[in-house]
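Weekly sync notes, structure subgroup
Attendees: PM, AL, DS (notes)

Item 1: joint prediction request from the bench team. They want all two components modeled as one assembly rather than separately. Inputs as received:
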Amino acid sequence: MHGFYTEQRTKMKLGLERKINFILIYAVVIPILLIIIFPFLVMVLTSLKPSDEIYVSPPYWLPKKLLYKNYVDIWRYVRLAHYFTNSGIYAIGTTVLTIFVALPASYAVARINFRGRMAFLFLILVTQMFSPIVVIISLYKMMAFYHSLNTYRSIIITYAAFNQAFSIWLLTGYFSSIPKDIEEAAMIDGCSRFSAVLRILIPLAKPGIVATVIFVFIWAWNEFLIVFTFISTDKLWPLTLGIYGFIGKYKILWNYLMAVSFLTTLPVVVLFLLIEKQLVSGLTAGAIK
Amino acid sequence: MNDMRNGYLVKATKITRTEKVAYVCLLPSLVLVTAVIFYPVIKTFISSFFAMDLYGNIEHFAGLNNFKRLFKEDIFIRVFINTLYWTLGMVVPTIIISLILSLALNNRFFGRKFSRAILILPWAASIMISALLWRWLFNGEYGMVNRLLHDLHIIKNNIHWLASPKTSFPAMIFVGIIISIPFTTVTLLAGLQSIPDELYEAARVDGANKIKVLFKITLPLLKTVFFIVTTLNFIYIFNSFPIIWVITRGNPANQTDIIITYLYEKAFLYQDFGIASALSVITFLLLLIFSVLYAWLLYRAED
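Output from the run, pasted for the record:
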């Protein structure tokens, strides 16, 4: 009997909770999600409008005439293929350099007990606070001094440095979550430390490494301030600068601009959805434990 | 823990072979970070005490002159207040909204996966592009924000959002909040999901109600994640250059500038590298003070 009553009470309580959740979801989640998706919906709708439907007041929600042709025209209107290539070079270059530098450092932090370990971690994490804006003036002067303004290398090196904190944080977390035993056994069996890492640790940490790679790639793909400061020639512009370049024109062709923005955003959103789960678990792994 | 134990074993005499391996592994990262981040920070600090020419070459020692010149500018107070307004006006609502959102999303409901996919849109997209989208949406004549408010019968006449700082600055703060919500919510959500179910069950058996569970279990356990998210948010928001640069560029007459956009303008438009360096130092110190203060407050509250 007693059990029956408690069960009933729990059920009633669950019902109440369900109601609270229901209200929470409809009163908070849906309005916020609508606000978040709103600009992206307008982006897509604007990108499908013909030019004479852009400057209309009040604006129409839907294009009167759906114009997919904008997506063809923009490749001629701006040097889109060119910007895509540059964005790719910056993003891939940054990813490669970042990972090659951050991997050994993360390995050392996660696996080796050495003096100065905490000092190193602190030093690296502190760089998260030195946002690019604080150093941009001195960096600009340095790049000018080494004749590196308007080069791919100026961007890739700077990006890689600013991604160290985050990458090392993530990678160290992943490495630490993998048990040491197998590597140690391999090393006792005469495997060198290097090949133990290469053959055992790296393959096991692959999901974490992939997440880090994609995150750095997206960061570099989206960056604006540094590339805006170091790169002034159109020839080396990535997509972000190509898009920003639209604003300078005397009348902004928003339909084209939105089409370019859509094409720029699409690949990173897809990549992001692929790694989101791993990225977040990596982010909080260190924090919870 | 291991660290400590090894610290005793190794003693402070010889560098072991494994330690050498570690140092070699760290070297590339250290070199990169030192060259690109620490060295320029130090250089900026030093050069803020020197007079510089239009190309940023050091001319002579100037003491606190750059700082004095900066404080004498009429607009500086405005920019400083704007920065506080910008940062607090964004961090506080972002955290509150994200906390509620993450609590809601922590439940199973129809369309939860879809919701999360929408939620990450502003996180994945370039801030520059988001800023540009909102600039178009807030357009007084052709923008969809006015259209929407018309359709909902909230306004009768078009609001020229970006024409006056009174509306453009809050509008940009709104944009900032929207952009900051995804990262904050998703991270808090991960924090929530890491709280073991047994704790909730135990509380339920004890007859604790939902509010009590929230304040006695959920929030205290979420503290570390909460701290990290708030600090990172603070740093990101303080440094979010593209929103203002793309939407108003600090106009009209620097009324919507914050320290970092003002700094950028001083350096790369007016080439006043002295004042710009002074501003960099102030930015750095502000970030440092806030972070330390916040950490201290949080740890004091814990005791």
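Discussion: Residues 2-47 of chain A form one domain.
Action: AL to compare against the crosslinking data before next sync.
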